[in-house]
Amino acid sequence: MGLEAERIVTYGQSQRKKQLMAAALANSTLSTNCDPPGNAQSGHWSFKSTALAIFLLSTCFFQINKASNRDTVNVNDTSAMLIQLATQIAATTTLPCSGHGYLEFGGTKQCVGTCKCYECFGGVDCSQVIHSCVIDLDHGDPTMFEEFWFRHEVSSITVILGYQRMSYFAQSKHVWFMENELELQIRALHEVVGNAVTEGRHIVVGTGSTQLFQATLYALTSPDQPKPTNIVSAAPFYSSYPAVTDYLRSALFKWVGDAAKFSLGVEREEPYIEMVCSPNNPDGRIQHAIVNGTGHVVHDLAYYWPHYTPITEAADHDIMLFTLSKSTGHAGTRIGWAILKDEKVAKKMMKFVELNTIGVSHDSQVRATQIVKSVVQGYAYSSASNLGIETQTLSSRSLSEHVDNNKLFHFGASVMHYRWRRLRDSLSGSSEFSIPEFQPSYCNFFQKQVNHAPAFAWLRCRKVVDCEAFLKENRIISRSGRHFGVGTEYVRLSMLERNQKFEMLLSRLARIDSSRTPD
Amino acid sequence: MGLEAERIVTYGQSQRKKQLMAAALANSTLSTNCDPPGNAQSGHWSFKSTALAIFLLSTCFFQINKASNRDTVNVNDTSAMLIQLATQIAATTTLPCSGHGYLEFGGTKQCVGTCKCYECFGGVDCSQVIHSCVIDLDHGDPTMFEEFWFRHEVSSITVILGYQRMSYFAQSKHVWFMENELELQIRALHEVVGNAVTEGRHIVVGTGSTQLFQATLYALTSPDQPKPTNIVSAAPFYSSYPAVTDYLRSALFKWVGDAAKFSLGVEREEPYIEMVCSPNNPDGRIQHAIVNGTGHVVHDLAYYWPHYTPITEAADHDIMLFTLSKSTGHAGTRIGWAILKDEKVAKKMMKFVELNTIGVSHDSQVRATQIVKSVVQGYAYSSASNLGIETQTLSSRSLSEHVDNNKLFHFGASVMHYRWRRLRDSLSGSSEFSIPEFQPSYCNFFQKQVNHAPAFAWLRCRKVVDCEAFLKENRIISRSGRHFGVGTEYVRLSMLERNQKFEMLLSRLARIDSSRTPD
């Protein structure tokens, strides 16, 4: 077996050891040692290798347990895959590095890792809080979802063999670069959530919805037009719209700005594209087209999911954009999709994706398929009778927890509503800050009245002129209102960060607020 | 266990059954049934689950063997992961669906698949050749590498758990969206091959080198310049350069065309960017900058790998572009990289990738890391003593085969040189077609004189004016010379397709050639 023990920075408990292995998966080495003989075939070998696998599996664990007594872990190439398997089965309920860091692995000693802590955390296992740190809430990085997916790492595992998905072409030629299975799962997801009509609609996948935003600008304009088409959106608008529209100085389209100023009650006769982000980034409000004219409207529905807002209807607009990052939290996978009524628009958007990146990563599509399927099944498999083998190993209490835990939007909504309650409590009667108020609405998904719980806190400083600078003095990084087409008294703060970071935000806001005594 | 057998179209041999499972991996479902108890922890549970794993593993195989007797396979959610494991160990030496198709899986019956055959093949297992079919060689789809990676599916497996790589940000902040481990492996690959200097250079990853080509245009131009920068390349030039340069009608740059016509011996004083693709797509020739002026030069070295051309030096230009698709064959992964001398250029290219797609798929980066690492190790682990467990199970003959089989560039070069010999033989003395001649050079990588074996055959029709139309009449799809800035007597044909498709090309070209009697 050649399993040798390696010394690493102290990893006391066997639980840590398992975390180490779990985190090792995404970049662990599986050496060619694992290769079968070139001439291996038939049931005989399959029997032989099964026996071998069982032997290896038990041996690996014997080695690991032995190793763990010496605070060491070694995921040897030969048995890495088997340890991965056992790791997934023996997964723990806590994230690696106390949930405040990731494991970094050396080039040669692949699976001997050390904790690299996220901002604000320290110590060998990242359990120490650095209270003096700077809290960066500039981006809407949806890391709060890690907790859910850690609990469902097995249902959401993605495995791709070296020879799979090598071609430029998807295994379905419907959209040449789009995996047929992903389209099916996206349609199933909207069916479960009821937030968009997909029947009879075209779906085009993109490298995140940012690529699809540019694809719509390309699809809705023409090189034959006399001048660039005006791109507008009601302020406060998503801060990326202006930069992404103008960075290449295209003659096809140009950013104009606030749709309200562009409209001003008059009927617009020239071509334009109005971006309607609803719920709105940054302020979470439900939006509708406001320009009076015959231009195009693109609905950016990245945040129209039950964890952020009541689902009041199945959206049915000409062009709707969605993204994996704000629905399941997988921002790093860079997958978005457009739901389209017009086939000509779909074809031109596909052409853009072809010219821009020659299609969309098939690995990301395979993973997105797995993730979305896991979400859909979380709602399909929510009765104990469907839990199969788990029912034999779970106590009835943890079983019911398990059932609830399968539901992504229930998890997301509970976290977001809890955070918004905490934020409103900590800012109630604040003399320094105010946040938007929302009226609850009936949510067809949860089948009850539900409050809005936006992905961002749109904070207004009551006293200071430059709210971003004011927060920065207090070691909180936010995005100023000026990026969103409004005044500097506003800032956008992400509500999607990991728990401890959110808690630190609350305590700092409370400390800042002069109307309160410091905690 | 709840493993129920499902009826599928006839899969006679147990080998086919294993192919079915192997191909099932990339989109098989792993249900939440596999989740551990929410409160599971500690060595006790890890012992329990190891025992469980061994139990499942054996049970799965018992079930599968039983199933196979009825020509059926069912990868049940609960045991899918264990079957994956066993499948990888028991991998066969042939691709699924006879290597001429892929397995399609239904939405609910996840791992009950049927063969969907590639063009020119039919039958339930895609073993039937359809001689009347149209052979599409328009794209450089590098599917010939599937054979290599199928043999190394274990060393090149990618496993990503649901909670991993969720953030927009890479785990290294060096380049905010680039995985540190990928950069290390890319540098190691160039070290092994010796085709590019990376020491002291900046590396920026992109969504394929097409995105990085656009990133260089953005990085080397400025909105302050009076008019668009001229983009040129010596004809015949890569057919995508014009379209990708002009599709957004940017005011920053515009396609001008043939660098030879642009230059015409005079010194150019206005800004320009010369694209130097070497070896050249489409004709495989080694290229150098030809414009006389102070403009920028971008070296597109997508094909500067030992399977296509002799490695005569470690390239050391200001801006060099490489791509995974033409080096390892993983086109669907959409990963390219730029090697850069100037940090300012690197930063502007990163800005482009940020605006264009908010970074690069982290799943693709994780997979690219695994694939490149496997290639590097194929050259590191090439002595029998390093083969570990294999040495116990392999005959000395298959062992030595195994050692050679570990070397990607040895595999690639042997296939490409064989194909070029076959092509030259079949066209020798042809009255219809001619192909370029090359002088062999000393290859530092193979340490001997090596012939050129380009990824494309740049075919010239001796008699007809429109070679593309002529080939189309004979059911061969090619790309006309007009797309490459030259005459229609030329066409580009991919040499990177799967074996049978290449063999069909040869027999058709021979049949076409009036100077021969039909085979």
From TrEMBL, chains A, B:
Residues 135-512 form the Alliinase C-terminal domain. Residues 91-133 form the Alliinase EGF-like domain. It holds the Pfam family Alliinase_C. One of its GO terms (molecular function) is transaminase activity. Gene3D superfamilies: Aspartate Aminotransferase, domain 1, EGF-like, alliinase, Type I PLP-dependent aspartate aminotransferase-like (Major domain). Belongs to the alliinase family. One of its GO terms (biological process) is amino acid metabolic process. Keywords: Pyridoxal phosphate. It comes from Physcomitrium patens (Spreading-leaved earth moss). Its cofactor is pyridoxal 5'-phosphate. CDD domains: AAT_like (cd00609). This is Alliinase C-terminal domain-containing protein. It comes from the Eukaryota.
